[in-house]
Write a structure and sequence with these properties.
mainly alpha
Length: about 240
């Protein structure tokens, strides 16, 4: 595990403490995204609720995590597209490269989520191919290009949209832990991909607790990136 990932894992595990988590979340609990991000975020979240319902579930989380990886992929591709025009501007190049580093780290993290949750869903045989595989796949394809174009037009709005999506995911995982906590603590989890990623957990509660924390970190980092982009010249 490299030093940056080790530091990220230490932060994520520290957020299991409710007081530390509340302190970490507080600066962006009332963050206000741009108008276009709020409109797109509302469409995204309400569409998901319409298809998967309000209640958190393994199947719903699988769909969420398939989609959650997409913005980070779009940002990275868009950042390199912009760099082809701005590579002589060192300040912008540094900003975009830093964002790309975060994007790659978040992609790997979200990939871990979807692989492990997909294995749980497969074991329980509780998924529907159309709702939990085909729809997320098709949605992800269009979402990639929407975010890509949005990033080129307004980097802050692209980051704000992810802030809203990750805020929703964070609240869904917290609700799942509140409702299913005792059962999850009694459900062991084994995963070769978790071991490959370097995350050691004993049961599903510990796994979903850390996933919740991951989403909070992604939420806050998206908001910080949006704030930073608002202080720089629009592309």
């Amino acid at each position: 595990m490299n030093e940056e990932l080790k530091h990220s894992e230490e932060l994520v595990r520290s957020l299991n403490d409710a007081n530390l988590r509340a302190e970490y979340a507080a600066p962006y609990d009332h963050y206000l995204p741009t108008g276009i991000a709020r409109v797109l975020g509302s469409i995204l979240i309400h569409s998901g609720t319409l298809v998967y319902g309000r209640k958190p579930s393994y199947e719903k989380f699988k769909a969420i995590e398939v989609i959650a990886r997409i913005p980070y992929q779009s940002w990275e591709v868009a950042a390199y597209t912009i760099l082809t025009a701005l590579y002589t501007n060192e300040k912008r190049a540094i900003e975009l490269t830093k964002l790309s580093v975060f994007s790659r780290e978040a992609q790997d993290n979200e990939t871990m989520h979807v692989v492990v949750i997909s294995q749980i869903v497969k074991r329980l045989r509780c998924q529907n191919f159309f709702r939990h595989t085909l729809i997320p796949f098709l949605f992800a394809f269009f979402y990639f290009w929407i975010v890509y174009i949005l990033f080129l037009i307004s980097r802050r709005s692209a980051l704000d949209l992810n802030y809203l999506f990750e805020s929703h995911a964070y609240s869904q995982y917290q609700k799942f832990l509140d409702i299913e906590g005792e059962r999850l603590k009694q459900t062991p989890i084994t995963s070769d991909f978790l071991a490959f990623y370097g995350r050691d957990v004993r049961n599903e509660y510990e796994f979903f607790e850390l996933v919740r924390n991951d989403e909070l970190v992604h939420r806050n980092r998206s908001a910080r990136g949006a704030e930073a982009s608002s202080n720089s010249r629009t592309y």
